[in-house]
Structures are given as structure tokens and as C-alpha cells.
Amino acid sequence: MSYFCVVKIHEKYIRRCIQLGENGLGNTAPNPMVGSVIVHNETIIGEGFTSPYGGPHAEVNAVASVLDKTLLSQSTLYVTLEPCSHYGKTPPCVNLIVEHKIPKVVIGIQDPNDKVAGKGIQKLRDSGCEVMVGVLEKECRKHHRRFLSLQEKKRPYVILKWAETNDGFMAPASYSRSGNPEPYWITNTNSRQLVHQWRGEEHAILVGTQTVLEDNPKLTVRHWTGINPIRVVLDRTLRIPDHFNILNSEAKTIVFTEIEDDSRYVKGIEYEIIDFSKNMVRQICDVLQKHSITSVLVEGGAKTLQSFIDDSIWDEARIFQGDGNFGEGLHAPRIKGTPIAKKNIFSDSLTLLVP
């Protein structure tokens, strides 16, 4: 068999690993959503992906799915990311691979985490295992972009999202809104359901004070199935009333503030002190990294979104455009980026940008 054919076969199985890994989207953080397959005589005999955080990793689930374990010593294990070599919530995956005498391992990309970073590969090679690294590397990096952002950029993967009218407004003039804090919808129900799906795919969601005061959002996935993201709120002087939705117990919530007064804190809410007179975005990213948050969906408001844009700290922008006009109100953020996709969602349009 030619080298070209061998490479294509490896790519075929790593591509299947990526498909499997996607099943962990929104469930594995802060762990990466790894996929793994085990192949014997060109037949897949085992598959697995990373369990929700604290559970078994992809390789462990793949090995467990193999009915005849005696075949493992004649098989090849494929995996999107280097197997771990350290004890965390679970034992090292390399130990299991060595224990079952799996003779060959094909890896999409090396793990940049200092606890692994080539150590798993070396341990496998020291045990006599043949290891190949870098198959479908570009695709695996894209698949693991959230995890890699935290490891390499030392910040979460940042997704900006907003909705604007045809004439470029995010919200109407204040006098046209009702007296009660509630959302003012620009997009249709299908677009709003898609946003709830996105929330379930990301580790955290972030909004500013004014958005909370005007909309009283819940920031949950109530119109979709999934885990609620960690809610991150900017509230410099603790202006948000205690009874607002964002401060309930539906999801873990982190509040950024400059007020160091425990007596004003809501029970069950985590508070982080930052200096709002300095670069706010970088401080936020530093704290989110401390919490091992791999991705954050920034939903508003306009000032908060513009701060991330101005500091060039964003990886994707997802911009809805409704079919209405306000004529006046709060202008949408100004952003420059490369469009990578555009589609219609009934009466709305959605544009995806990258820097």
C-alpha cells in the first residue's frame, strides 16, 4: 500500500474522531471534547468521546466499547488530541493504552497543556508503541479551538453575538420601551432558539450592566436542551437588584465589580474584583482563565461588545439582522472582519465573521 493511501486511511479515521468529539460540545469543559476510534484490520471495533467533566476520557470510552479486548493488542487507536499522561479527575489515558498493549496510536495534534505537552507521546514511545502525530492537524485545531485558546492565548475563545435592525440599531430609543425591564426582540423566534442552542455549546455567557437592567435576561438554555452556561455579569457598582433573574440560582454566576463589601453580595453568587478604570477586557479574560473557562459568548450590550472589538479580543462574531427599522436608538457595534458564512433564518439574516 502506498504512503498516500496510508495517509488517506489515517485521515479517514481521524475525521471520524472529530465527528465523535462533537458529541461532547457544551458538556466536557474545561476538558477538551476529544474523539477516539480503535481500528482492527480496517474495521472500527471501538469508539468513544469525552464524557461530561469528571467522567472518562475518549480513549477510555473507546477501549470500553470494544467487545473482544484481545484484539486491542493488534489494533490502532486514533485520537484527536494527545492522550493525557497525568492524574486529574481520572487516571492517565496512556496507562490504559500501554496496559492493553495497543501497538499503534495516531494523534491529530499534540496537547499544549504543560501537564501533557508531549509527555503522553513520549511515554507511549518508551513503552514500544508506534506513534504518529499531526494527521488532519488543521481540522483538529479547529475542532479543539476553545481548549487551545485557553492553553495558548491564555484566555477563553471569545464569540461576539448581537442582533441589529436593517438600519443598524441594537435597541430602540428608551422612551419607546415599556416601563418594565424586558427584552425588546429584533429577531424572530427561530433565531432566538438558535441562540439558546449556542448558549448550551459554550462554557460561559457575558453581558454588561445596562443589558441586565433593561432586559432582565435569564441567559439560560430554556428553549433548547443542554447545560446552562456560566453567567458572567459586569456590575461595577452593584446596581442590579437582588431579585433580577441573573442573580437567581438557575446557573452559576460570576459578577465583576469594584465593590469590596460582602454585605452587599447575593448568597450563591461569585464576585470578582477588577479595576474598571483600567483595561477591563484583559482583566475579565485573566479572571475567566483563572476559572478555567474555555469559551465565552458575549451577548451585550453595545458598549461591552465594542470593548472586546476595540481590544481585538474576539475569535468569531455572529450578527443577526432583523427585517425591521427603529429610525433611532442604540447603535450596533462597529466591527471589521472577514465574512465566512451568511444565511437566512426566515425573515432574519445571520452573518458570521472572523478577525
Automatic annotation (TrEMBL):
Species per Swiss-Prot/TrEMBL record: Flagellimonas meridianipacifica
Molecular function terms from GO: 5-amino-6-(5-phosphoribosylamino)uracil reductase activity; diaminohydroxyphosphoribosylaminopyrimidine deaminase activity; zinc ion binding
Record bears the keyword Oxidoreductase: yes
Lineage: superkingdom: Bacteria
Binding site for Zn(2+): H57, C84, C93
Catalytic activity: 5-amino-6-(5-phospho-D-ribitylamino)uracil + NADP(+) = 5-amino-6-(5-phospho-D-ribosylamino)uracil + NADPH + H(+); 2,5-diamino-6-hydroxy-4-(5-phosphoribosylamino)-pyrimidine + H2O + H(+) = 5-amino-6-(5-phospho-D-ribosylamino)uracil + NH4(+)
Lineage: Bacteria, Pseudomonadati, Bacteroidota, Flavobacteriia, Flavobacteriales
GO biological process, one term: riboflavin biosynthetic process
Binding-site residues, NADP(+): A163, W185, R199, T211, D215, G301, A302, K303, T304, L305, Q306, S307
Protein name (Swiss-Prot/TrEMBL): Riboflavin biosynthesis protein RibD
Sites where the protein binds substrate: L219, R222, E299
Cofactor comment text: Binds 1 zinc ion.
TM annotation in the entry: none
Active site: E59
